[in-house]
Amino acid sequence: MVETTDEWIVSRTGISTRHIACPEMATSDMALEAARQLLANRGMSPGDIEVIILCTVTPDMFFPSTACLIQDKLGAGRAWGFDLVAACSGFVYGLTTAAGMVISGAQKNVLVIGSDTMSRILDYQDRATCVLFGDGAGAMLVEATDDGSSCFVGFENMVDGSGGDYLKMPAGGSRMPSTHETIDQRLHCVHQEGQQVFKYAVRRMEDMCKKLFDRHGVSADDVLLIPHQANKRIIIATAEKLGIPEERVVINIDHYGNTTAATIPLATADAVADGRLKQGDLVLFAAVGAGFTSGANLWRWSMPASHGAK
Questions:
Q1: What is the DSSP letter of 133?
Q2: In a domain, 310, yes or no
């Protein structure tokens, strides 16, 4: 499709394989499967869920929200919910929002899903972007603890709207509705200025994480870093600046590529499965995305003794 090689892709991004959804599969389908697996692992029914936060930039359609579609397909009749649009920072924003709901006492069970079908908005003539993204979904359940204690340590979220032009899908909204011209000009696809995004991502992720460390008396030696999987070079550069050795950084971009809002839950699932993330560990989630959005969360990892990840 474009002039490139496996060596070029791996050396610049760290990506070896990706997953592409079949034509009949949409964002809600992947999200639904992630939610079902999570509930099965947790031993809960859809009726236990009170809120669904669906983090995505590739909804099934503009409206109704994809969270509504998932609520219906899942059979979560008690749940209300909404889509959260913050690009690659979406899942971190979703966790922050869910934590606030639970800590306030307003809700007891909040399902946070990151799901994106990025293959549908790629320009396969643009080598700078078409090699980066994959499709995927992952989910976490944020629950109230029996004793009222909190596993949520803190967060640092930010928006810098001056960077909006560096990573965007220009057409399709009210500013530039769909026309023959916008389709011919490939304006319904991801457009990115890679160097600007790279520099901002490294600088901002370092800054956010250090602020969290200082605010909560945490050092780089205390945490397992699970960052957004945008580019292996960004991840390594950020870890080096923070003083976190690579063995305490979860990297799985080589298997999935950049799945946008799904990268952090997918990486977390891998970390739990291989024993790197265990009960009581201090875990740091960090991401930068289009907007520019950015976010970091500190959690004391907790999961029920006989069930799946919480």
A1: B
A2: no
* Options 88, 130, 189, 209, the catalytic residue: 88
216 is catalytic: no
- Rounded to 5, what percent of the chain is helix, strand, coil? 40, 20, 35
pTM (predicted TM-score): 0.95
Alpha helices in 104-193 (DSSP H): 127-130, 180-184
Residues 99-114 have pLDDT tens digits of 999 999 999 999 999 9
Asked whether residue 37 falls in the same domain as residue 82, the answer is: yes
Same domain, 139 and 162: no
Residue 90 near residue 84, CB atoms below 8 Å: yes
> 79 and 185 share a domain?
no
Whether 88 is catalytic is yes
Element (H, E) at 269: helix 263-273
Residues 228, 231, 252, 297: which is the catalytic one?
228
DSSP code string of 278-290: -TT-EEEEEEEET
CA distances from 308 to 15, 43, 49, 239, 242 (A): 28, 8, 16, 28, 30
Q: Does the annotation count 258 as an active-site position?
A: yes
